[in-house]
Amino acid sequence: MSAPRILVISPNWIGDAVMAQPLLQLLRADHPDAVIDVLAPPAVSPVWRHAAEVAEVLETPFRHGALQLKQRWKYARLLKRRGYAAAYILPNTIKYALIPWLAGIRRRVGYKGESRHGLINIMHHDETPPRPMVAFYAALAAAPVAEQGAAARAALPRPKLVVSAAQIAAVGERTGIAAARPLVAFAPGAEFGGAKRWPARHFAGLAQAILARDPSTQIALLGSPKDQEACAEVAAALPAGAAVFNLAGVTSLAEAFALIARSAAVVANDSGLLHIASALNRPVVALYGPTDPDHAPPFSDLAASISLRLDCSPCKQRECPLGHQDCMVKMTPQLVWQSLQPMLPVFAV
């Protein structure tokens, strides 16, 4: 008898995909012989290629936001031939719920979402207020329940991704980052909006504190092409001769994985790179302004979540509705340094 096949349809955001990984750990524990494939957008697929539970990553061919019913029907015919016994639909939209239904997958698990009755036949409902993201996705591994207690949440596996030594060596060679010198990674960007970004001058101030402690430290500035300007501002504020690598937009997501895995510590806004660092169990300092640090915290053995918890936060807005962004501006480099410094190992210069 062939092993059962399970399809997981990935969230569309990198951070959400990372926080959904514990669901796969639970599915593997419940179905040790199953073949687990993940269907993901191309921008998110590298996350799943670093998950040990995944047999194959399938990339969605659809344009963002478009229904493309004919294309979804054709793709569903391809999935039908793969013989999936169950599908877990993590995006909360009708567009992705259509695919396993059209593919004739008999068990279709997901949250209520937008008009998905019939498309989802194992229907879950979220709690009020919403549960943290890891618990939100992990709950799909079990039967629908009205509420998930604190003890059950505490027992959930943490997000876990893996990077090989060969991948780390290759990205070091390509970028010129020295293997013998310490590396700290910064992630100054955030896809959601400007309100989530710690000011570039604060990242620069933190880098200066790191270099004052150990001038041999290398600083890697990571992000997408959208983050190049912020990363350039950080680099420009640092002393001449400092080993600063502005890699925003010039490394792939897979290379960013390897650089993070290589790092002694990571400082990041609430972003996909933060959650990658957490899943790779790197020491991490997470910076929260307009978002809730309890909703999507890091899970590293060494982790600090910093939030000023102002009366106006978490507002969950893309841009500060009050125009001052105090939740991030008033988070000083000295405050962040207090959390980061104890995480850094002592290196010989």
Model description:
This protein is of the alpha/beta class and 349 residues long. The chain folds into 2 domains: 5-154, Rossmann fold, CATH 3.40.50.2000; 165-343, Glycogen Phosphorylase B (Rossmann fold, 3-Layer(aba) Sandwich). It has 13 helices and 12 strands. The strands form 2 sheets. A 6-stranded parallel beta sheet has the order 3-2-1-4-5-6, with helices on one face. Helix 1 (14-30) packs parallel to helix 11, helix 3 crosses helix 4 (94-102) and helix 7 crosses helix 10. It is globular, with a radius of gyration of 21 Å. The termini are far apart. The mean pLDDT is 93.
Distance between the termini: 60 Å
What would the CATH topology of the largest domain be?
A: Rossmann fold
| CATH architectural name of the largest domain | 3-Layer(aba) Sandwich
Query: Shape, please?
Result: globular
Neighbour order of strands in the largest sheet: 3-2-1-4-5-6
* Strand segment tally: 12
Number of helices: 13
Strand content: 15-25%
Rg is: 21 Å
Largest sheet composition: 6 strands, parallel
What share of residues is helical? 25-40%
Taken in chain order, the helices and strands follow as: EHEHEHEHEEHHHEHEHEHEHEEHH
Integer average pLDDT = 93
Total count of domains: 2
Pfam family, one: Glyco_transf_9
Organism: Duganella aceris
EC number: 2.4.99.24
Family: Belongs to the glycosyltransferase 9 family.
